Amino acid sequence: MHQTGLVDKKVALDLTGEAKRSPDDYRDKNKVVLVGNPNVGKSVIFGLLTGRYVTVSNYPGTTVEITQGPALFDENILVIDTPGINNLIPQSEDERVTRDIILHEEPNLVIQIADTKNLRRALFISGQLAEMKLPFVLVLNMDDEARERGIVIDTKKLSALLNVPVISTVATQRKGIKTLIKNISSGKIPSFDFRYEPMIESAIQQITPLLPKGHVTPKSLSLMWLAGDDFLKTVPANKIKQPTLTQIEDIRRELQNCYIKPVSYIINQNRLEQIDVILQEVLKTETPPPRRSPAVFLGKWTMHPVIGIPFLILVLYLTYFIVGKVGAGICVNFLEEVVFKTYLNPWLTDLIKLIPWPLLHELLVGQYGIITMALTYAIAIVLPIVTFFFIIFGLMEDSGYLPRLAIMVNRLFKLIGLTGKAVLPMVLGLGCDTMATMTTRILDSRRDRI
Known about the structure:
Blueprint: E1 30-36, H1 42-50, E2 55-58, E3 65-70, E4 77-81, H2 93-104, E5 109-115, H3 119-132, E6 136-141, H4 143-148, E7 151-153, H5 155-162, E8 166-168, H6 177-183, H7 198-207, H8 218-226, H9 242-257, H10 263-282, E9 283-285, H11 294-301, H12 308-352, H13 358-365, H14 370-399, H15 401-414, H16 423-428, H17 433-439, H18 446-449
Parallel strand pairs: 1-4, 1-5, 5-6, 6-8
Antiparallel strand pairs: 2-3, 3-4, 7-9
Helix pairs in contact: 3-10, 7-8, 7-9, 12-13, 12-14
């Protein structure tokens, strides 16, 4: 049985202080990477594993934020939270970053977080991780919501089929987290493998010997290339020569000529057919108990094609009003005009003028002084806007309305070449261009953000 090689030594961490670390501090640590579909609770589990000692930075060459930090239970383990994905064949910058982290960071363990209610979608990623032969643990989160809908997963059988630990959790209630931590040091290489049509298998066998060796299997790299991922073009020339790359591309082109539909579509269909077989063995449906909670009622009607529209308009208006009017208007005017301009700045200016150094006067309270401009802008202008935005954004995200909002307006925004996620930057732009620009980070591709 393959072990991940993670250290089991417990290290007590002081949670009362702050720590600032650079990415260089994490270079020699064992890496645990969290992957999963969007909105499955990855960030919650990341927070439970790492606490407050985290670093947020852009992944090199991208505008995608990566959060990482040492584990609370073992400071020799670095936990990396990746963007939500639906496929390891990248269709967006988020998926490309997650793919690159798995290929280039060489993680000791991958923890896949899945929504128990949508296991089919999660197993699509599980199968790709299994093909890479990376040690991983499958976490079935939101188990309580699945049981409310009558969905029960046989975790023991699923674990036997994949040959990896499968753990049920309810991250918001910390259920199953201790079991997850115990399994972090015992992740196994999965034994599961997808089977493909004979022509695809033949192409894989032709490409595999031509690929450079790495910590993931040549078969998984072959399938990524056949499915249209051009990651090999970024491999250094000393690892794969141009004639070899041309030969691999010829194999892909010949395979595509054998099919009317894209090879990527055929590969995905082969995978989904086998995932459906697994689901038949591990997924059971029971008659769910009647649910009459306000959250269930609102969740149902906010997605209604007719009744959901007034609710959508109300939420968008409140977002615009609270951030653009209350935050950027009332609060900014009060802090800037009353607190700073009328009271604080004149008092500090008189105080600092007692110091007999004109240069220091200009530096602190001059036209572009640290206090009169920098401090005023930071506290009186930026702080209220950012505070109100994150309160509204947090409420929408934690209540589960944010993905519903994106779905409701997705068809409308497709007419202008965007997705439903663009609704927040569009609405906030009517009141505050700073927050509108900041929120473009939630969009999937660089094109959409521009």
